[in-house]
Each structure stands twice: as structure tokens, then as C-alpha cells.
Design the sequence.
């Protein structure tokens, strides 16, 4: 018997009916054509899926292509493809790639999310013939649309409704069954008690070898995703860091907040140390990958309706960064660095000023340890002033007796030299350019008149 999508239904244990196409049906099979749908056909395509496919939904995710199989201009079958599933244990074991490889090479996997034989259009071997035609051009079309090819195709089959004959006839491999859960949102799954069979097919002989390679050759490496910055800090370590921020004054009123200030600051620190750009959007994306254990360690509260702890959104980070005093934040960050790395004892201090990107002209003068790159402190340049007096104040905060100060030509000033030596006990190395002609000439004359070393 058939379901309303035109695909064969069966009850487990039924005897298989083998049907052969008659001459007219064979003529149709030989004359089948497949093509991508056009934009003006989108509504019609989705209507067929919504009305005739058993899942009743045409929604696709990520990269996607839609095909129509036709004979003499009449639609017979529809196939939808979209991005591969994020994590499937049986598929990942079959491929043999690591978690890190999966995260950056998932674009090379496509999922056949919808396959529909239209009502009244079915005939023996139509499904397998349509699949064969689609597989012949899928990789090329994907490369044309998204700039990279495909190496593996996957699909789910409900064994209560279908045998998966079209996939088997097209060289697909049955890898196993799903657990019978659907992902409702991040880290939250709902049981639907309908496990699906998982089929997969390599699209070229060396597909699995390429996906498991330490380094993919060109042009495949161009299609890899940029490695995503993830939080590798263990829950116990997050608790330890959070203790340092615990005494930070909360600018908010009331007490019924989902996210603690100390937890948000800990998260910002971890994201920054991991190389995240630290805009509120980047921070929210970074937070989305945290586990429930990590979120709990940060002191965040669970949602009473779901029982899960939600990750903070962009607005949470935006309000925090806007309202917390910069001096307070820097004090806590430096204390945290001392906790993690031990007290700073720089022998080479580098001071430089930069205008912050997308800050409407805000300038910062920052100090770093020349040997390790460790952050030592920063101060903002107030309006109607410049970097020079700010640098003098900054060296007082981070100087170590006997250290060497390195600055660019802008800071080659008498006052900074005196402050460094007389007040901080720091030697200096300054650059002198042509915009200070008198000093440059005096230094040149001094060095030329001494053929041997001399005391500064």
C-alpha cells in the first residue's frame, strides 16, 4: 500500500512486493530530468511538501538546495537538501573524524531532509532513478551555490513507514538508528519515541580519507570553517576565577537577576584569553557553547519553566560593559591575572597608545610586558589632552625597579624620562625621529664624539 506522499508504506514483517515498470513507465524513467527549482517556484514547492510529505514542513536549515524531477515538464518528485546534522554518533564513527575536525568540516556533509514522490505520479523504480540523477549533480550544484563541494550525504528514514529502498539501490549504507529524541534547543532534547534509520553515502572514493586528514588539500581546505573559540575552562576553575570578581559592586538594583556580575566578568575574561574579540555579540556566541555545569559554576540561575540555565544574551553583556566602571574592571582583571599567572615582574615594559575600533575616537594608552605580552594596565586619554601625560601616569602604576621602558617616538619626552628614572627606577629606550631635529642632532653629535663606551 502507499501513503499520501506516493511512497510505499509497509508494516514490519510484510512480504515485499516486487514490481517492474511496464513499457510506458520505463519510457518515463528513461526520460526523467532533474533541475534546481527557480525562485518563482518556491511557493508551489513548499505547498507540495506541506500538504503531501508526512513531516508536513518544508523548512530547511543552513546551506540548502531544492530539486524537482520532471518528465515532459510535469513534476513527479521533489528533493530537498540542507546542512548536515551537527552530531550523529553513528555517522561520526563511520567517518572516523575527531570532534575538532567535525566542527570545521561539517559543510562537506549534506542532509537529504525531504524526498517526496507526488501523489498519483509514482511508478516502480522512480524513487531510485530520481535519487541517482540527483546524486550525479549534487556536488557540482553545491559548489556553484556555496563555493565548496560535498563529500558525504546523509538522510533519515522512518522504518515504520518506509524501507529505504531508494537509498539502498543508490549505494547508501545503513549506519544505525537514532535514539528517538529531537533537539528542541541547545542542550535540550525532547523524546518522540520514533527512532529513525540513518543512511549515509560517500560521494567520492576518498571522501572519508579527506574528512579525517590532518590537513585537507586544496581546494577542500578553502571550504573549512574557521575554528570556533570555545570555553575550555573547567567548572572548578570557573568557580575559582569567579571568587576574584565576587566583591565587584553590582550597579543593578534588586536581587532577582538571572546572571551574576561576577559570573559575567569571569566569562568575559575567559573569552578574551581564548582570543575572542569581546564585542557583546561575540561574547553571546561564546556563551552559547557553555555546558550546564559551566553555567552553574558561573552562578547563573535556571529557568523555572525549562529547568535549564540559559546562556546570557547580547543585551546582558552590553549593559555590563556600559555600566561597570573601567577602573573597577581593570583592577579585577589584573587581580585575576595575578591569581592565574602569579605576580607580574616585567623586565621590559612596552607602552603604546591606540584608538579603539568602533569607539568614536576613544584612545587608550596600554602597558604590556615585553617578554610575555602580559597586560599590565591601561588608561583612557581624556578629551583636550593626549597620550603623553597619560603614559607618565601609567608607568607609575606598572613600573618595576630595574626594568626597561620601551616607547615610540611620540613619547620621547624629557618629562617621561625623568619620571621613569627618578620616580620609578626604570631605565628607558626611546626612539628619536626627524620631527625632533635638535634632540636628534645632539644625540648624533654625542655618539660620534665618543669612540668608546660611556656612562649615560
Sequence:
Amino acid at each position: 500500500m502507499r501513503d499520501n506522499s506516493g511512497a510505499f508504506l509497509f508494516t514490519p514483517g510484510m512480504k515485499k512486493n516486487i514490481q517492474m515498470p511496464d513499457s510506458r513507465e520505463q519510457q518515463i524513467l528513461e526520460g526523467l530530468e532533474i533541475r534546481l527549482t527557480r525562485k518563482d517556484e518556491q511557493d508551489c514547492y513548499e505547498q507540495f511538501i506541506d500538504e503531501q510529505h508526512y513531516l508536513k514542513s518544508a523548512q530547511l536549515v543552513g546551506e540548502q538546495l531544492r530539486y524537482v524531477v520532471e518528465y515532459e515538464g510535469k513534476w513527479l518528485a521533489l528533493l530537498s537538501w540542507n546542512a548536515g546534522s551537527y552530531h550523529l554518533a553513528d555517522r561520526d564513527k563511520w567517518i572516523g573524524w575527531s570532534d575538532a575536525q567535525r566542527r570545521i568540516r561539517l559543510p562537506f556533509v549534506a542532509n537529504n531532509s525531504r524526498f517526496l514522490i507526488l501523489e498519483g505520479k509514482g511508478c516502480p523504480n522512480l524513487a531510485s532513478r530520481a535519487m541517482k540523477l540527483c546524486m550525479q549533480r549534487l556536488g557540482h550544484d553545491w559548489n556553484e551555490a556555496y563555493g565548496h563541494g560535498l563529500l558525504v550525504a546523509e538522510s533519515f528514514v522512518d522504518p515504520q513507514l518506509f524501507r529505504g529502498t531508494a537509498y539502498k539501490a543508490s549505494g547508501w549504507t545503513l549506519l544505525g538508528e537514532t535514539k528517538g529524541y529531537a533537539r528542541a534547543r541547545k542542550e535540550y532534547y525532547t523524546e518522540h519515541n520514533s527512532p529513525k534509520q540513518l543512511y549515509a553515502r560517500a560521494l567520492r572514493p576518498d571522501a572519508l580519507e579527506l574528512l579525517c586528514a590532518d590537513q585537507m588539500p586544496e581546494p577542500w581546505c578553502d571550504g573549512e570553517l574557521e575554528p570556533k573559540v570555545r570555553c575550555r575552562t573547567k567548572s572548578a576553575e570557573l568557580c575559582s576565577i569567579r571568587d576574584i570578581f565576587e566583591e565587584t559592586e553590582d550597579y543593578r538594583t534588586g536581587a532577582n537577576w538571572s546572571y551574576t556580575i561576577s559570573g559575567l566578568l569571569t566569562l568575559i575574561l575567559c573569552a578574551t584569553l581564548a582570543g575572542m574579540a569581546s564585542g557583546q555579540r561575540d561574547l553571546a556566541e561564546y556563551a552559547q557553547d557553555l555546558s550546564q555545569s559551566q553555567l552553574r559554576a558561573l552562578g547563573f540561575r535556571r529557568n523555572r519553566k525549562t529547568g535549564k540555565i540559559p546562556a546570557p544574551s547580547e543585551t546582558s553583556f552590553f549593559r555590563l560593559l556600559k555600566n561597570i566602571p573601567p577602573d573597577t574592571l581593570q583592577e579585577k582583571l589584573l587581580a585575576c591575572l595575578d591569581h592565574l599567572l602569579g605576580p607580574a615582574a616585567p623586565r621590559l615594559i612596552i607602552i603604546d597608545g591606540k584608538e579603539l575600533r568602533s569607539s568614536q575616537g576613544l584612545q587608550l594608552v596600554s602597558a604590556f610586558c615585553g617578554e610575555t605580552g602580559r597586560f599590565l594596565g591601561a588608561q583612557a586619554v581624556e578629551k583636550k589632552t593626549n597620550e603623553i601625560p597619560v603614559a607618565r601616569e601609567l608607568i607609575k602604576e606598572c613600573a618595576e625597579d630595574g626594568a626597561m621602558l620601551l616607547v615610540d617616538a611620540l613619547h620621547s619626552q624629557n618629562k617621561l624620562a625623568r619620571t621613569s628614572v627618578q620616580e620609578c627606577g626604570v631605565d628607558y629606550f626611546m626612539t628619536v625621529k626627524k620631527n625632533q631635529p635638535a634632540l636628534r642632532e645632539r644625540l648624533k653629535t654625542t655618539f660620534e664624539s665618543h669612540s668608546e663606551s660611556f656612562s649615560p
Remarks:
- The chain has a mean pLDDT of 85.
- The domain at 23-223 is CATH 3.40.630.30 (Aminopeptidase).
- The chain has three domains: 23-223, 235-330, 344-448.
- The CA atoms of residues 234 and 356 lie 32 Å apart.
